[in-house]
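for the writeup, i need someone to sanity check this before i put it in the appendix. the sequnce is what the collaborator sent (i think, or maybe the updated version? ugh). structure was predicted straight from it, no edits. if anything looks off just tell me and ill rerun, i have time this weekend
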Amino acid sequence: MGLFEQGIIEKLTIGTYENSDYKKRVASGVFTAFLNPEGYDVTFKTKLNKEQPEGAAKTNQKYVSSPSTDLNLEFLFDGTGVTEANAGLALINRIQRKNFAETSVKKQLKDFYEATGEFVSGIHKPYNVIINWGDFEFKGILAEFTVNYKLFDSSGLPLRAVGKAKFCESISPELEKAITTPNSPDVTHTRMVKAGDTLPLMTERIYGDDKYYLEVARINNITSFRQLQPGTEIFFPPIEKVS
């Protein structure tokens, strides 16, 4: 069961949350990549005490801490029209002539940055995000976003751009304790539906008990929980929110 099961390409999605405990969701799948990135880079870091004793030829590196993980992604923002049949297979894909004014590069970039990096007055900071792609999940906040404009129309408006985004892992101390168990019921989870999945089955995997599936269905506005559409994103809140 992977990204390309039964010909369905799972899209990278970004959900927004108010804080780093990821309990209060603002929107699920607020940004969905039309073309998936070609890949992603994850940087794991270890902070070491590199002080070397005077007169010593070598030093014994001493562990200090494990700083937050970084995630680097590249997104294609396209206003020329990209064939859906090839979406997700490559960053730059076959182009067909269509009028995509309603999803212009400018609007796509605005939507992305509003979800990930723009200052939100109500919470006095940008949103925290959960990034999901297949089985990959990353909780963090946007640290850097660089846009490289690639193609322009006759009036100078951008038709294609590549956005390079760096996200830094950001979780609250309470979540850090709970997250040591991958399927901890005290942690917010988002999962993509795969072929053959039912809501009771998915709820059993997350919480260790399928009795919460009706509450999960209510939270996600799901009416047909036994016939889920593959590729749909399901939000599983901490167990105290559904008990």
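The first helix runs from residue 105 to 116. The helical segments are 105-116, 173-178, 199-207, 213-219.
thx in advance!!
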